[in-house]
Amino acid sequence: MSAVANKASFKIAKLKYNGGGDWYANRTALPNLIQYFNNNLGGNIEPQEAVVEVGSSEIFNYPFVYLTGHGNVQFSDPEAKNLRSYLIAGGFLHIDDNYGLDKFIRPQMKKVFPELEFQELPVSHPIYNQKFKFPNGLPKIHEHDNKRPQGFGLIYKGRLICFYSYESDLGNGWEDLGTYKEDTQETREKALKMGANMLSYAFGSR
């Protein structure tokens, strides 16, 4: 076991939601991202992610939660209230469109923050300018509809609380090399660097 693993002190989590969508997609993504972050940025995240339900009080144990999938997402009113409380209290949510998520997640996040709109973040935003620099913004990892990748954010009282990666598919790039034959090592490295930036930003913004 590495020294980084020995000093692990907290976990991040994958968000389990209702509605029938595949919240469990990208099974190898977070462990690979965690390993990359720990090895390259001296992080102290436990090697295996947790799974936490949207409405659970356990969500407050995790500084960073990851939501992905291709299909339907549904938050009940108590779940939306719980997620709002978590984010206002300092939590950070990364929504990763795994293709087809957009039309489902936007109305659900509107239930969480009816007063906020997703804003496309400028390339000057700190999330693109942590240890790794992305002068063109969110990288394109996995091609679907020949649309440009966009990084959207929900900003509450000046703090980015939710980062939404659209038409990028970062999670695919975090998975084991060879999971998707079209994804090269270079592409995977870009995805991991962007993910490491997100973790750095999320932990630094608390």
Structural summary, described in words:
The chain has 206 residues and is of the alpha/beta class. It has a single domain (3-204), classed as Rossmann fold. The protein is built from 6 helices and 7 strands; from the N terminus they run H-E-H-E-E-H-E-H-E-E-E-H-H. The protein has a 7-stranded mixed beta sheet. The longest helix is centred in the last third of the chain and has 20 residues, at 185-204. The protein is globular and about 40 Å long. Mean pLDDT is 92; it is low at 1-6.
Order of helices and strands: HEHEEHEHEEEHH
Give the structural class. alpha/beta
Distance between the termini: 29 Å
The quaternary organization reads as: single chain
Spatial order of strands in the largest sheet = 2-1-3-4-7-6-5
Protein name: DUF4159 domain-containing protein
InterPro entries: DUF4159
Domain DUF4159: 11-203
Task: Briefly say what this structure is.
This protein is of the alpha/beta class.
Question: Helices, strands, pairings?
Answer:
Layout: H1 3-6, E1 13-16, H2 29-41, E2 50-53, E3 64-69, H3 77-88, E4 92-97, H4 102-112, E5 119-120, E6 150-156, E7 159-166, H5 170-174, H6 185-204
Parallel strand pairs: 1-2, 1-3, 3-4, 4-7
Antiparallel strand pairs: 5-6, 6-7
Helix pairs in contact: 2-6, 3-4
Keywords for this structure?
alpha/beta; 7-stranded mixed β-sheet; Rossmann fold; about 210 residues
